[in-house]
Model the fold of this input.
Amino acid sequence: MKSPDKPVGLTKDAGWQFGLRKTVPYSQVKVWDFLFSRDGLNTWLGTLIEEPELKQSFTTKEGVEGMIRLLIPYSHIRMSWKKSGWENTSTVQVRVLTAGEKTTISFHHEKLLNEQQREEVQRYWNEKMTALETALAKAFG
Done:
């Protein structure tokens, strides 16, 4: 008997996940510098109460709590991420990948509890990516 197909986003051992990539027409350096500027962080992470530091907890005014666990400049960060009202802490990885004269921004969110959380972060990251495209065009367009 054939087993049913695995739902989209369900991993073998890390719960549910969601990933989103978008290529923009700006250099990797410009995109990275913007993403991790105050304006950039406010756009995709939320309004920070304090400047985030490696291995230090952060909180946004929107209720997201987390900690940047790994930071490789002009490449990627990995952080814990917990939305207000959630019982669990998830993991988000943000990558900035060079694509010739363009750059790909990648958000990968894992360790989600269920399909509902996956749908919630899918809406969240799609909204944030749209806001980032608009902000980058305003800054560099």
Observations:
- The chain has one domain: 16-140.
- Residues 86 and 137 are 33 Å apart (CA to CA).
- The longest strand covers residues 102-112.
